[in-house]
Amino acid sequence: MSLENVVTHFAKWEKEKDIMEFATSSATVLEAADTLQVEPARIAKTLSFRKGEEGVLIVTAGDAKIDNKKFKTIFEEKPRMLSAEEVYEKTGHMVGGVCPFGLTTEMNVYLDESLKRFVTVFPACGSSNSAIELTCEELYEYGNGKAWVDVCKGWQDI
């Protein structure tokens, strides 16, 4: 059902045919990079966090890690990831296919600055064996981005 929600989501822009499905897993950054034959940093991973009673999604580059101090400065609370069950409940996507597209619940989506160094990136499309290639501008638009944020570390030194 999750991939179907994403296909429907992208149909609004006639981009549903750009979704790639693979015979191999793309559930982790390394698996996706291997499947797509790109550097892991270009995999746009979507992380799910608590924000009060709500959840927020943060899309980051594959080589970036959440910086607790930066996160707390922007979101005014410590980063606490949602459980796998909560992720599915809020997004409609299972862990390994989480993306900001075709969500079953409206959520705030933030994109991390770590993505901006790439012309295109590859987010998942609701399943553990799918992805789409998008520019950062497309990712922001199609993912209903609320804002660009700087909440990651580890990628600037690379």
Quick recap:
The chain has helices at residues 2-11, 29-36, 68-75, 84-91, 136-142, and strands at residues 20-21, 43-51, 54-61, 65-66, 108-112, 120-123, 130-131, 134-135, 145-149, 152-153. By secondary structure, it is of the alpha/beta class.
Can you tell me about this structure?
By secondary structure, the protein is α/β, with parallel strands linked by helices. It has one domain (2-153): Alpha-Beta Complex (YbaK protein). It contains five helices and ten strands, in the order H-E-H-E-E-E-H-H-E-E-E-E-H-E-E. A six-stranded mixed sheet has the order 8-6-2-3-5-9. Strands 1-7 form a two-stranded antiparallel ribbon. Strands 4-10 form a two-stranded antiparallel ribbon. The longest helix is centred in the N-terminal third of the chain and has 10 residues, at 2-11. The protein is globular and about 40 Å long. The relative contact order is 0.24.
Q: β content, as a range?
A: 25-35%
Rg value: 14 Å
Structural class from helices and strands? alpha/beta
The CATH architecture assignment turns out to be Alpha-Beta Complex
Under the CATH scheme, which class? Alpha Beta
Number of strands: 10
Shape: globular
Relative helix content: 25-40%
Quaternary organization: single chain
Rounded average pLDDT: 95
